[in-house]
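Document type: protein sequence-to-structure record

Subject area: structural biology

Format: plain text, a pair of labelled lines:
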Amino acid sequence: MDAVNDQRAGSPPIGDDPAPADEPESQPGAASPAADPRTTIAGRYAVDLQTAPGDAGIAVTYHGRDLRTRDLVMVKTLRLEYRADPDMRARFRREARLLQFLSHPNVIRALTFTEERGAPWLVLEHVRGRTLREEIEIGAPFTVEEVVPLLEGLAAALDHLHARGLVHLDVRPENVVVRPDGDVKLVDFGVAQAAGTTQDATDGGPADNASLLAPEQVCGEPISAATDVYALGCVVYELVAGKPPFVPQESAEGRNAAIRARLEQRPVPPSIARGSDALPAWVDDVILGALERDPRLRYGSATSFATVFRSGVEGDVDVETGRPRRREEPPRSRQVPTNEPGIAVKGAPLLASRRGEAAASANGSGVVDAAFSSLSARAPSPRRARDPDFGMVGRWLWRAVVLAAVLNVALIVALLMTRGELPGVWTPGAATGPGAIVRIAGVGLVAREAPDRGSPIVADLPEGGTVRISGEPAQGENGLWWPIEIETANGVVRGYVPQSWVQGP
């Protein structure tokens, strides 16, 4: 069965929650009816091609079973129409490598990846539960208490990804599985990219994701962790309001109108969208803080968003802004005190004497008549008045400090001129150029035959591995590409990689 018929015939299996009683029992060593050698992947995973394939964009998912442990698994593979496309295969391989690179309880776990029978296969853990989309259809809108564990689990998964310099770019209810114990798993990393890049148009994701796109994605600006924070804010908005901040439309015109709306308008506050008094006052400001059009005005991380939301549920936020209280510092040019002459200032006599001349209080309550006084109008220090040598000692101390600083600078300059480094502090890195050994970092690491993304792949590259620069950079379709040499089991292979993947040695 080399050609797999992957036409969809039902609902996605990832949302199924089969009862253990329905699973076939077998004795150790007994042949399993699902263990057909024509459908066994990587020598141990039996794929049930008779189940209805779940729709995963360019890919489909099937039920499977680990023949060694008898555990259920999910097996993901490219659709038939994409298997001959090198870009789609590279994108699928990139997702597989990324998932194998991640390890977090709120991220679906990749078990293995293989390419056989003319198709790539990604074996994933089987997550029991329903998608967050199904949960929304059943129980939305949610209470703020119900949102907290969902938000915290998703935020933890995204921060794990962001800490590795990557952005998910497809955070939506369909890509979140809620387990029976209430924990969540983030799935489908097919369009994840490195932070600081612009979103690849060929990896734009499904059309129904248009309602969750951040403004920088729409405008072709660089993406960052704030891009995922925006999508997470859209998900939380839908959980509490029962509908997304920008309602998706079926037609292309409707989707374009929704995209323009997020660039020109602020979302309707979720409390108004919900149409009831069920939401506390702080919810609007907290959620809309994640939906700011300017990425710099959003939360610094997904966990920061979750922390502020939990603080609101626990009543530990400012009732007016919904954000953590921040102590306001007066401008440095402002004079203290701010009272006008003759206004009573309540405080200790010492504080009053610093602000002005204290007047005798009739009742001794500590209220003094303080005249306006600039900070510079202060009496001489009693210590200075009693000890005329104090100023001389201070001047000698300052001279010693300045002399020590000058000697340190002279020593640094001498080391740089003679040795070209500061031992134990700074050593210059090797320049990137022909003959240099450099590290490779990025997503979907492959070397191509020519400086072009459409060029054939000549070798897979290890994440964080080293290669040798073999010549001067060449201009490609998306910038400069470095020619490299890779040591493989079959000898030295030469190819090209984008300049953005080349890191220091």
